[in-house]
Amino acid sequence: MRRGGAKSPPRMCVAVAVLVAGTVWLCASSAGFLGAPYGGYRVKDVDVNKLWTTAGSNGWRASSAPRSYWPPPPYETNGYLRVRCNGGLNQQRSAICNAVVAARIMNATLVLPELDTNSFWRDESGFPGIYDVPHFLKTLKHDIHIVTSLPEITSRRKTKKLKALKIRPPRDAPLSWYTTFALEEMKKYGAIYLTPFSHRLAEDIDDPELQRLRCRVNYHALRFKPHIMKISNEIVNKLQSEGHFMSIHLRFEMDMLAFAGCIDIFTPEEQKILIKYREENFANKTLVYRERRLIGKCPLTPEEVGLILGAIGFANSTRIYLASGEIFGGDRFMSPFRAMFPRLDNHSSVGPEKLEENTRGLAGSAVDYMVCLLSDIFMPTYDGPSNFANNLMGHRLYNGFRTTITPNRKALAPIFMDREEGHITGFEDRVRQVMFNTHFGGPHKRIHPESFYTNSWPECFCHMNPKNPSDKCPSDDPHEGLEGQLQNEKTEDATLTTIESTQTEETMI
Ligand SMILES: *[C@@H]1O[C@H](CO)[C@@H](O)[C@H](O)[C@H]1NC(C)=O
Ligand SMILES: *[C@@H]1O[C@H](CO)[C@@H](O)[C@H](O)[C@H]1NC(C)=O
Ligand SMILES: *[C@@H]1O[C@H](CO)[C@@H](O)[C@H](O)[C@H]1NC(C)=O
Ligand SMILES: *[C@@H]1O[C@H](CO)[C@@H](O)[C@H](O)[C@H]1NC(C)=O
């Protein structure tokens, strides 16, 4: 950890907290971040070099194999379930997990989920263009029946495709909606088509086996196609050729800034663009920049990201991979960051030639996802429900508690504001005090509104020396191969070699 300057009150606060862990909340409240989302986690004086290894597991490891009797899906189907996922790559990813759970509880046959091909993503490739279909079918064969399209039916000597009844499911529908209303319609028509299908099944399900099924889909069955894995692999190898690297999801993009309503820092012309986009796409609400920022709703600026990394003590030679689309405001915002951390890369600068044409739309997002998943450290700059950063945090937790740096924007906002007003004394100490009050990707309790897809602990984890018998790691696995897959993944994890091998059957992703 970098140390500088004379002893100042905030730094003493950290020091005291280290000596007497109980003091932490006193200090925390004075800094205005009581109510930090990580209940009970204690401030530690973190050695920056330790962040390059994974967070402590406290004896936990990932496991999403069933722990109670889990019969195979019944031979008789109640009908066919067709869904149309919408949103970005990761919103659709959670929707796929939900569709599998829905099919399981309805004893339905799932039709391979349809992915959104909306204008934003300009991507027509669909599920088979992004994900490895044979692997998906194989991994879930103990859980549900899946077909790649609706079957043909013959009635009155005519053969035609079975038609599915279109239904718009309620947002965050409970399990009971599926097993009553939707099931009745399915039995009546033979097939139903749920659209749109994002956030259509409640995240809180009071059944750990169904939650584990979600993890089996998310972390085992959904694997990107070989060409995406290959490009990601090449990028990761290049970035690791000289040691470790960090990935940052820099969500400083036009749509996000317009949505968040954080526009005062832009030129009048840029503000016009953001306001117009906001009017066209989002509800008409008056948003005040200062207020938005103080409640943590503004994405971090590239400069703020640099200041945080500097305060934590990362060397300016740190290799950084940026996952993002177009940075709004361009170089004006990037150059202060690049001045602090010159070794910045993205998939265009470090990827193989002709990468651009390979990585448009969802596939481009998938490459960024893989690189961020395999990076030594990951830092999101904005998080919202079911998005790229949130899913990655969950996946990295599952993949062996990989270090994740999650800035508490709400706690940091007043510190940055003071700095902008010229009060720079103690700036770095104050930032450190906020930053070191997090779990860095270790096991931690999920507290609303944290999503199950961001944190599947404890359901999808087991303890190797449990105090509580229900946390015990399953010894015999009714899912042939599943546990083996995990073991293999672990070994790979430890060596962090290549992801080429993840293209073989033994691994997840
Ligand atoms: C699904 O099948 C299982 C086992 O055959 C049965 O116990 C359960 O009641 C069925 N559920 C529905 C909704 O059909
Ligand atoms: C949005 O709200 C503002 C003021 O609250 C109002 O002047 C404007 O007409 C509204 N625009 C739309 C499209 O509703
Ligand atoms: C990086 O840090 C080193 C030592 O801390 C310093 O000498 C060098 O000037 C810095 N480089 C940049 C680009 O800031
Ligand atoms: C990637 O980096 C290059 C070079 O630094 C830059 O020109 C380009 O705009 C960046 N691309 C994205 C999508 O940020």
Describe what you observe in this structure.
The chain has 509 residues and is α/β, with parallel strands linked by helices. The chain folds into three domains: 169 residues, no CATH class; 142 residues; 46 residues, no CATH class. The protein is built from 20 helices and 14 strands. It has a five-stranded parallel sheet with strand order 4-3-2-8-7, with helices on one face. Helix 5 packs antiparallel against helix 7, helix 12 runs parallel beside helix 13 and helix 12 packs across helix 19. The radius of gyration is 24 Å and the shape is globular. 45% of the residues are buried. The site of one 2-acetamido-2-deoxy-beta-D-glucopyranose has 3 residues, from loops. InterPro entries: FucosylTrfase_pln, GDP-Fuc_O-FucTrfase. Pathway: Glycan metabolism. This is O-fucosyltransferase family protein. It is a single-pass type II membrane protein.
- Count every helix, treating DSSP H or I runs of 4 or more residues as helices: 20
Shape: globular
Biggest beta-sheet profile: 5 strands, parallel
pLDDT averaged over residues: 83
Report the strand count: 14
Q: What ions, cofactors and ligands are bound? A: 2-acetamido-2-deoxy-beta-D-glucopyranose
Share of residues in helices:
40-55%
Low-confidence stretches: 1-44, 477-509
* Head-to-tail CA distance between termini: 34 Å
What percentage of amino acids are in beta strands? Answer: 5-15%
Q: From the alpha-carbon coordinates, what is the Rg to the nearest angstrom?
A: 24 Å
Looking across the biggest beta sheet, what order are the strands in? Answer: 4-3-2-8-7
State the secondary-structure class. Answer: alpha/beta
Number of discrete domains: 3
Subcellular location: Membrane
Region (Disordered): 469-509
Biased composition (Polar residues): 494-509
Keywords: Carbohydrate metabolism, Fucose metabolism, Glycoprotein, Glycosyltransferase, Membrane, Signal, Signal-anchor, Transferase, Transmembrane, Transmembrane helix
